Hints:
Helices cover 27% and strands 26% of the residues. The protein is built from eight helices and 22 strands. It has helices at residues 11-22, 60-78, 95-105, 108-111, 143-156, 259-272, 316-331, 343-346, and strands at residues 4-7, 27-31, 45-46, 49-50, 55-56, 83-84, 88-90, 114-118, 133-136, 139-141, 160-162, 170-173, 176-179, 182-184, 186-189, 210-218, 228-229, 233-238, 241-245, 278-287, 296-299, 306-310. The two termini are 30 Å apart. Residues 7-13, 30-32, 34-39, 41-46, 164-165, 190-192, 194, 212-214, 245-246, 285, 287-288, 310, 312-318 line the site of flavin-adenine dinucleotide.
Amino acid sequence: xxxxxxxxxxxxxxxxxxxxxxxxxxxxxxxxxxxxxxxxxxxxxxxxxxxxxxxxxxxxxxxxxxxxxxxxxxxxxxxxxxxxxxxxxxxxxxxxxxxxxxxxxxxxxxxxxxxxxxxxxxxxxxxxxxxxxxxxxxxxxxxxxxxxxxxxxxxxxxxxxxxxxxxxxxxxxxxxxxxxxxxxxxxxxxxxxxxxxxxxxxxxxxxxxxxxxxxxxxxxxxxxxxxxxxxxxxxxxxxxxxxxxxxxxxxxxxxxxxxxxxxxxxxxxxxxxxxxxxxxxxxxxxxxxxxxxxxxxxxxxxxxxxxxxxxxxxxxxxxxxxxxxxxxxxxxxxxxxxxxxxxxxxxx
Length: 348
Ligand SMILES: Cc1cc2nc3c(=O)[nH]c(=O)nc-3n(C[C@H](O)[C@H](O)[C@H](O)COP(=O)(O)OP(=O)(O)OC[C@H]3O[C@@H](n4cnc5c(N)ncnc54)[C@H](O)[C@@H]3O)c2cc1C
């Protein structure tokens, strides 16, 4: 079989490629040097619950276990570590929320993902925690470290090319696609929110992208060793540094850092703890989000053999490992995509 051309080495393209490799399906992954990468801005948090609402996310049971198993296997394959699965701590704001979590613990499905309360005394005394936190299963993926380890392995196996892909550079002939003098059986676009600009293969994708900001700070004297999710999340990176995020805004879809968004992060962080810190890095990216929070997966109507694998919103880490396997089954013609994600049903 001719190789599959994957465009984009973010979380979507990388996870898809690694799952193709497990099936001995050849591929070439191309990326423009992460010029518009959402993945490199992501905090990498994953958990099966919507913490604000205290309920399970879509297909949480399927996604959660496959997600952790997938990244653990990658750690073994690459001989490095990037998955931090010690759980997440939800800051509880009032008695009503406290009682809600207590009730949720009793529900069979949700309860299995809630580890219980953790005393506020186990957090820095400088943190404003009116109640014990609620610990849920999950954690965070060091996305940059994962993508870098995967890229090294793609380069070592000659499965990667740094290049910008443009639809006008491909030619279809006898059911195959040629690009830069190579022939491919299929093309898969994993270009994040940039798929919105594609007017050739997928002109109607219903994206509602959401721009977001994070910042890394040096915060000596805090000594936080757990991930906490309040109005902002705080994620310990080691050596007194922390990642803080994220904002949501629905305009200016680019990678420019906006100081009014950074100001929002700083204000929310001060509400949790008013110890001073130094900002090390500020980042902005665009989540490839969709209003109904379901990805956009399927084949181009007009150009058979060109597929889209994207639209993972805020939950790429949790969902991509499972959905990439289902995607491969569909594009090998062995199964039909779930209607909730399939472009056939979503963009008829
Ligand atoms: C502030 C913020 C916080 C987030 N936090 C989380 C989180 O905690 N957990 C979580 O799961 N998700 C989170 N996300 C969402 C997550 O980042 C995305 O869902 C995910 O990264 C999307 O991956 P992707 O591979 O589809 O797109 P991308 O990561 O954007 O990758 C697309 C790649 O394709 C390249 N590319 C684009 N066009 C071309 C072209 N024409 N030719 C060649 N290459 C091209 C881009 O440069 C990029 O490298 C967050 C996002 C943001 C912005």
